[in-house]
Amino acid sequence: MPANRNKLRFKSIHEAVINADVEELQAMVKQGASINEVDLTCKDKFTPLMWAAHTGSLECLHWLLWHRADTTDTSPQGWTAAHIAAIRGQDACLQALATSGANLTAKDNRGQTCAHLAAAHGHSFTLQSILRSGVDVNTADANGWLPVHAAAYHGRLGCLQLLIKWGCGLDDVDNAGNLAAHLAAMEGHLPCLKFLVCNGPSVTHTMNARNDHGETPKTLSSQFYKEACVDYLNAVEWDRDHPEDQENLAFPAHVAAYNGDLGHLRMLIEQGVVNINERDDKGATPAHKAAGQGHIECLQWLVEMGANAHIVNTAGETARDVAARFGQLACVKLLGGDPDAPGGDTDDDEHEEQEYPAVVGSTDNPINMPQRKVKEARARAWKKVEELERLLEIAKMNYRQLGGRLEEDREKEKEEKESDRTIRELEQQLEYERLRREKMEGQLDEYRAEVAHLNEELERACSVVSDDEPVRQTKKKKNKKRSNADSGGVFVRRSTSKNKNKIYD
């Protein structure tokens, strides 16, 4: 009973959602409260689903979506629950809405989508979830702003880098002809301006780009007294107009680090020719040069040799800041940064909104969900899963009994047909191999018969040779005796003249 009295303090379904009490929410709906009831006490006219997205009450949001809460309801500003989740950076809530079919490309009264709002408020994790759902990164609002314009105007460096990674163009202009660099210079967001200048089509293109009023980024930063941006743009112009001074030979270690020549850099530092933390005329160390060009091997060697990565140059940047400006994420990670949110999002408006990584099964706002309530919510969710799985199996069986075919049944039939086809092919192959084997066995029998015949011929020839052998031995002995007898020479009897005459007579 004390628990029931405690729940009476929630006068409306909206209060139950704001306090993340799903049991009270369920009880109120059973008592007749509308699941899409508008909160008239709030100027924004939020529905329970919008309040769940605003406060990050993930369990309540799941329950509302399961019971078919309308995801297309809008506030007076034209915001849906997905817009509110993007504004508040409630990543898990936005993922749940997207999974339930919420339209993330819907536009509010100013033509802004969820991507515009997430980029403007600096919620890079939420923006990444939006982009992964297939939202077009180049959708324009009523002012012609793309999400990259919103990020540049509000100084959200992390969102800028994420949008560029997803293919957002930096040379697109709004209805007034402004590039994203114009907006960053106008508002004095120096880190964003550096990133845009370095990653644009070219430095000259970005520096000389003029809007419909003929203003360049430098002109706008000067008009709005953004001295840091003016000094940076002046330095970029000087470097562009004096390329021969960009690689100062008075600093050979800086040149080696800039070019990624690790062997030369190691020789200079190990032999004591230069100091590992030597600064050039702009206050940069070799680590700055290596980080800016993305030479990870040089940078890693410098860090291992004890290079000070916290030294800042004349622009107030560390080596990690330089790597983040040039989008060298591997160098950012090596220097102790988070490559998924490099550089962080500057918050000049002093918002205290925090970004939380999307973790499946947990809420974005741990303040509204204590650990005890999280465990209870997970237990209820698992119980619901088991119950629904049981009901799903019963529904499938009923559907099959009525002659229906499920997708898994079609897949099973397809697999069976594929198996049958494979079996037939294997049987045909087996038959072919059997016939081939019989043919080879027939050939083998022929070869064996031929071998036997040849063996017989060979034996016959051997017997003939053995019969002739004694005769040959006898002939050899006679020849030998004859040769021995003739070995004493030949006696020739010469006839006398008388004998010759007798013969002639």
List keywords for this structure.
single chain; 505 residues; mainly alpha; Serine Threonine Protein Phosphatase 5, Tetratricopeptide repeat; flat; Ankyrin_rpt
In CATH, the architecture of the domain at 1-103 is Alpha Horseshoe
Query: Quick one: overall form?
Result: flat
Q: Give the helix proportion (percent range).
A: 55-70%
How many strand units? 0
Q: Sheet bearing the most strands, described?
A: none
Number of helices: 25
What would you say this structure looks like, in words?
With 505 residues, the protein is an all-alpha fold. Among the domains are: 103 residues, Serine Threonine Protein Phosphatase 5, Tetratricopeptide repeat, CATH 1.25.40.20; 83 residues, Ankyrin repeat-containing domain (Serine Threonine Protein Phosphatase 5, Tetratricopeptide repeat), CATH 1.25.40; 33 residues. The chain has 25 helices and no strands. Helix 4 runs parallel beside helix 6 and helix 15 runs antiparallel to helix 16. The longest helix has 79 residues. The radius of gyration is 46 Å and the shape is flat.
